[in-house]
Specification:
By secondary structure, the chain is α+β, with helices and mostly antiparallel strands. It is built from nine helices and ten strands. Helix 2 runs antiparallel to helix 3.
Length: 290
């Protein structure tokens, strides 16, 4: 006996919804991981992501069945020669927990980042092999030693902006040198939450003490053009002697151009709350909007 027509229609609807969600996830993964994301078979919906952390590498291959993510997890194969025995079982257990805790949601991104986190933890427990120090290494260590002596300026963090599971948070510090910029960045990256952000884009402008030269630069950290837009905003409001970092935690849903709106709003929010946007500039902006 053939199934009722309405049951077939319902199955088709669910199938199409699943494919749409899968396509969105595939597009997001491709945008995040770039050349590390590979399409193994579009027909069978099989994809792979290269994961590198320190000297260790891993390859996660996933195949998305029609029932994923609504009713079943993706099938996966993890290639990691350094991962053996109980450690492999431990990591696979974490991946299973992620699926059970997020049943019905897209989880490949969470899997990749969990593998990366696991690799980082394993590397931290590996013995350090001493190597001969070259002159270049010695100079680099001397430079790093000098920068570590620079007192880290106070860091202020702003309110979080959330949109479709993505979160944006700005951080600001007053800086007068590249050494202070690096000190602030090191301090921020010591925060595990910030270090695990998908992107930490930043821009800075400062004039060294005893100089009239303006130094400015920016970093996209994988979010193309984001750092440049932040720097442009700092230039528009003529903010000086300041570093602004915006951390973004990607939630699995592409935001399109809205992500730049949130990055700019987060940057302006922290600049205004810390007094880097002068009243004259604000009044000009308010007049234009009237």
């Amino acid at each position: 006996m053939a199934p009722p027509a309405n049951s077939v229609e319902l199955w088709r609807e669910r199938f199409q919804q699943g494919i749409t969600i899968q396509n969105d996830e595939i597009e997001a993964l491709s945008a995040i991981y770039g050349i590390d994301f590979h399409t193994e078979s579009a027909e069978h919906r099989t994809y792979s992501i290269d994961i590198t952390e320190g000297v260790n590498t891993a390859l996660l291959q996933v195949t998305m069945p029609p029932e994923y993510p609504g009713e079943s997890p993706p099938m996966y194969m993890l290639s990691a020669p350094w991962l053996k025995g109980m450690k492999r079982q431990e990591l696979c257990g974490y991946l299973e927990e992620i699926y059970l805790e997020n049943a019905g949601e897209s989880i490949v991104y969470m899997w990749v980042e969990k593998i990366r986190e696991f690799m980082t933890e394993q590397a931290a427990h590996e013995p350090v092999v001493e190597e001969k120090t070259s002159i270049t290494d010695a100079v680099d260590k001397l430079k790093l030693s000098f920068e570590e002596e620079v007192q880290c300026p106070e860091i202020y963090s702003g309110d979080i902006i959330s949109d479709r599971k993505s979160h944006f948070q700005p951080h600001l510090a007053a800086v007068r040198s590249t050494a202070e910029v690096n000190a602030v960045l090191r301090k921020l990256y010591q925060n595990k939450k910030v270090a695990n952000a998908t992107h930490n884009m930043y821009a800075y402008r400062f004039i060294c003490e005893g100089s009239s030269n303006l130094h400015q630069d920016c970093e996209d950290d994988g979010e193309d053009h984001a750092g440049g837009r932040m720097l442009h905003l700092l230039q528009i409001v003529d903010a000086q002697n300041v570093l602004v970092v915006v951390s973004r935690w990607f939630g699995g849903i592409l935001l399109g151009p809205d992500r730049f709106k949130h990055i700019n709003n987060a940057t302006r929010q922290i600049l205004e709350s810390c007094g880097y946007v002068n009243h004259q500039e604000r009044s000009k902006r308010n007049k234009k909007t009237k």
